[in-house]
Amino acid sequence: MAEPMTADDGDEFRSGFVCFVGRPNAGKSTLTNALVGQKIAISSDKPQTTRHVVRGIITRPDGQLVLIDTPGLHKPRTLLGERLNDLVRDTWSEVDVVAVCLPSDQRIGPGDSYLVEQIAHLRSRPTLVALATKSDLVSGERLRQHLVSIQGLEDKLGLSWAHIIPVSAVTGDQVEELGDILLSLLPPGPKYYPDDEFTDEPEEQLVAELIREAVLEGVRDELPHSIAVVVEEMRMRADRPEDKPLLDIYASMVVERDSQKGIVIGHKGERLRQVGTAARQQIAHLLGVPVFLDLKVKVMKDWQRDPKYLNRLGF
Ligand SMILES: Nc1nc2c(ncn2[C@@H]2O[C@H](COP(=O)(O)OP(=O)(O)OP(=O)(O)O)[C@@H](O)[C@H]2O)c(=O)[nH]1
């Protein structure tokens, strides 16, 4: 006897690229991780920690969704700022869906409107979805008001949302549904990545981001913009017994001024040691191998304004 038909039979495989945008701290990285189910994008409670385009890959029997996590768009004050904005706009015009993250615990402000307006004016406009992120932080009534305000942007800015979805990356509420909806908006297409791949970021970059996250924990608010991390060298140590592998990583944290170097190193090197330990544990967890981490702090004066430094740091 023939197997009963499943709902998927006859449906074409869908695939494509989705980009989360939103003001700093809107919850983009956390949502990327929740959807992918793995820690890829770096989240922290400091704004603007996401520098690189990070992809999370979700593969299901009926489709594959490639998530692209961009930095927030902000008024450029440095060459780095300008390059980041260009990167963000390029990404928007290339993806299938742009999902605008509007945190439920914040009113929609001029910054959000500006951002949505920029998207509305793109020449090739992707499908637009609005996400009321961090829905767990507010009451039902407040969430309802927020959804109404989001809808109000349609007339105000002359665009139309394919969906408006409340979601919480922390409680997981609506995360699964969001995945389904995003997938349904993608065109028929090929599987871009093998099933077991969840990001195509080079390991060096993931490692650099983990170190950056560790160093940002607990430092003053003005410092995040001044720190970059470069992985100079990363290789398995030779002559180790097979059951006791060790990954050697040599990395530098780059700051702009001597005073910042002092902050990062801390009293008698205490901070640097803590950062090293935290980063080492995270990296070992991610890559599944014990790690030796050698961390140095370098000063590159005003690296954010210098094209030579920016190129060296991969921007
Ligand atoms: N309660 C709650 N907090 C959340 C949720 N999503 C994110 N957060 C918190 O909000 C803060 C910012 O989240 P991120 O995911 O780093 O935000 P982002 O938009 O990627 O931030 P940038 O990298 O600065 O652009 C972190 O402290 C998260 O823990 C959520 O669904 N609920």
TrEMBL record:
<keyword id="KW-0342">GTP-binding</keyword>
<dbReference type="InterPro" id="IPR003593">
    <property type="entry name" value="AAA+_ATPase"/>
</dbReference>
<dbReference type="InterPro" id="IPR006073">
    <property type="entry name" value="GTP-bd"/>
</dbReference>
<feature type="region of interest" description="G4">
    <location>
        <begin position="133"/>
        <end position="136"/>
    </location>
</feature>
<dbReference type="InterPro" id="IPR030388">
    <property type="entry name" value="G_ERA_dom"/>
</dbReference>
<dbReference type="InterPro" id="IPR005225">
    <property type="entry name" value="Small_GTP-bd"/>
</dbReference>
<dbReference type="GO" id="GO:0000028">
    <property type="term" value="P:ribosomal small subunit assembly"/>
</dbReference>
<feature type="region of interest" description="G3">
    <location>
        <begin position="69"/>
        <end position="72"/>
    </location>
</feature>
<keyword id="KW-0690">Ribosome biogenesis</keyword>
<dbReference type="GO" id="GO:0005525">
    <property type="term" value="F:GTP binding"/>
</dbReference>
<dbReference type="InterPro" id="IPR015946">
    <property type="entry name" value="KH_dom-like_a/b"/>
</dbReference>
<comment type="function">
    <text>An essential GTPase that binds both GDP and GTP, with rapid nucleotide exchange. Plays a role in 16S rRNA processing and 30S ribosomal subunit biogenesis and possibly also in cell cycle regulation and energy metabolism.</text>
</comment>
<dbReference type="InterPro" id="IPR005662">
    <property type="entry name" value="GTPase_Era-like"/>
</dbReference>
<protein>
    <recommendedName>
        <fullName>GTPase Era</fullName>
    </recommendedName>
</protein>
<feature type="binding site">
    <location>
        <begin position="133"/>
        <end position="136"/>
    </location>
    <ligand>
        <name>GTP</name>
    </ligand>
</feature>
<dbReference type="GO" id="GO:0070181">
    <property type="term" value="F:small ribosomal subunit rRNA binding"/>
</dbReference>
<dbReference type="GO" id="GO:0005829">
    <property type="term" value="C:cytosol"/>
</dbReference>
<dbReference type="GO" id="GO:0005886">
    <property type="term" value="C:plasma membrane"/>
</dbReference>
<feature type="region of interest" description="G2">
    <location>
        <begin position="48"/>
        <end position="52"/>
    </location>
</feature>
<feature type="domain" description="KH type-2">
    <location>
        <begin position="219"/>
        <end position="301"/>
    </location>
</feature>
<feature type="region of interest" description="G5">
    <location>
        <begin position="167"/>
        <end position="169"/>
    </location>
</feature>
<keyword id="KW-0547">Nucleotide-binding</keyword>
<keyword id="KW-0694">RNA-binding</keyword>
<comment type="similarity">
    <text>Belongs to the TRAFAC class TrmE-Era-EngA-EngB-Septin-like GTPase superfamily. Era GTPase family.</text>
</comment>
<keyword id="KW-0963">Cytoplasm</keyword>
<dbReference type="GO" id="GO:0043024">
    <property type="term" value="F:ribosomal small subunit binding"/>
</dbReference>
<dbReference type="InterPro" id="IPR004044">
    <property type="entry name" value="KH_dom_type_2"/>
</dbReference>
<dbReference type="Pfam" id="PF01926">
    <property type="entry name" value="MMR_HSR1"/>
</dbReference>
<feature type="domain" description="Era-type G">
    <location>
        <begin position="14"/>
        <end position="188"/>
    </location>
</feature>
<feature type="binding site">
    <location>
        <begin position="69"/>
        <end position="73"/>
    </location>
    <ligand>
        <name>GTP</name>
    </ligand>
</feature>
<dbReference type="GO" id="GO:0003924">
    <property type="term" value="F:GTPase activity"/>
</dbReference>
<dbReference type="Pfam" id="PF07650">
    <property type="entry name" value="KH_2"/>
</dbReference>
<keyword id="KW-0472">Membrane</keyword>
<comment type="subunit">
    <text>Monomer.</text>
</comment>
<feature type="region of interest" description="G1">
    <location>
        <begin position="22"/>
        <end position="29"/>
    </location>
</feature>
<feature type="binding site">
    <location>
        <begin position="22"/>
        <end position="29"/>
    </location>
    <ligand>
        <name>GTP</name>
    </ligand>
</feature>
<keyword id="KW-0699">rRNA-binding</keyword>
<keyword id="KW-1003">Cell membrane</keyword>
<dbReference type="InterPro" id="IPR027417">
    <property type="entry name" value="P-loop_NTPase"/>
</dbReference>
<dbReference type="InterPro" id="IPR009019">
    <property type="entry name" value="KH_sf_prok-type"/>
</dbReference>
